Q: What sequence folds into this?
């Protein structure tokens, strides 16, 4: 049988979005990973990696998020086929914008296509989560769900898994800055408080509800007021040199809200037009530079699409 091949691009994602710790995420246009999958005559998953910081990515199938996710999918479908998965990293690992989820999302979409689509993109999320668990030590979907579905996604429940796509206001712009150092999600999770005061829990819940309403009503004023994190940001911001000055200066420029993307060190901001988004990117870069850190920035509308099949 001749071998078949497919190439898929999956983009980075911003998880938490300030008020939705572990349950809210959105998809970016850029940066992205490109994953090429080829059928193999041997019933084995082989991983190769190239691109940005590829030396930091495990080649052992069970330790790689893409490999582990595809293994989970094949086991679940009871399919004994082999694939060579080549990952071209465009998203640096440990950046906080879902580098590990993007590889898994692209690999899952590609393998599913090569198998003539036995599963929907929604069905693939659970397998992406199995992949994510090897990277972060936790079974979470707030990167993999928006990576597979696009748009802004709420994870309402894990058992059973319930995911909702929320409306994306047309003029909502995302700016992300990736400062040049890494934070390991596993370690960053270790810093989280084991308990939170009732008052903070109530505030976080009402903020998430208000953020959701703001998406349905295109109400950027309410969105801004709701983008506060009482759980993770107070401890995680201490790990990011310059976070407080980045936040202050971005908000002064008229951002709707600004916070840590995932477990950091990337910082994101939402704004209501592209020019402002680009101005915010410049400011983030300058503020990180003032703190001795180089950074890369990305500004775009929120990506409403699932991973892109290139050929
Ligand atoms: P990010 O938010 O950038 O995904 P994480 O810390 O959650 O950061 O994930 C990065 C960790 O996952 C690193 O330890 C990396 O070695 C591991 N990892 C395993 N497979 C991959 C992959 N295909 N792409 C990126 N990181 C991976």
A:
């Amino acid at each position: 049988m001749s071998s078949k091949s497919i190439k898929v691009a999956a983009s980075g994602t911003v998880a938490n979005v300030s008020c939705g710790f572990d349950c809210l995420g959105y998809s970016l246009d850029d940066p992205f990973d490109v994953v090429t999958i080829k059928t193999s005559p041997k019933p084995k998953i082989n991983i190769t990696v190239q691109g940005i910081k590829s030396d930091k990515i495990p080649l052992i199938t069970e330790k790689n998020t893409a490999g582990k996710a595809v293994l989970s999918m094949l086991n679940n479908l009871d399919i004994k086929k082999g694939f060579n998965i080549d990952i071209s990293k465009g998203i640096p690992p440990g950046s906080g914008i879902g580098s590990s989820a993007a590889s898994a999302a692209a690999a899952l979409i590609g393998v599913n296509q090569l198998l003539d689509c036995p599963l929907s993109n929604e069905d693939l999320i659970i397998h992406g989560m199995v992949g994510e668990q090897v990277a972060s030590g936790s079974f979470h979907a707030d990167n993999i769900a928006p990576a597979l579905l696009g748009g802004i996604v709420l994870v309402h429940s894990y058992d059973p898994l319930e995911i909702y796509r929320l409306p994306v206001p047309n003029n909502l712009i995302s700016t992300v800055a990736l400062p040049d150092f890494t934070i390991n999600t596993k370690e960053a999770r270790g810093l989280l408080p084991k308990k939170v005061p009732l008052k903070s829990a109530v505030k976080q819940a009402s903020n998430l509800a208000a953020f959701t309403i703001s998406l349905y009503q295109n109400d950027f004023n309410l969105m801004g007021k709701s983008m506060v994190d009482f759980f993770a940001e107070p401890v995680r911001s201490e790990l990011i040199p310059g976070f407080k000055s980045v936040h202050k200066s971005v908000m002064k420029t008229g951002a709707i809200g600004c916070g840590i993307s995932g477990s950091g060190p990337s910082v994101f901001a939402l704004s209501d037009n592209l020019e402002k988004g680009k101005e915010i990117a410049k400011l983030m870069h300058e503020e990180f530079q003032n703190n001795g850190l180089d950074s890369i920035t990305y500004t775009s509308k929120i990506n409403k699409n699932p991973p892109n099949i290139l050929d």
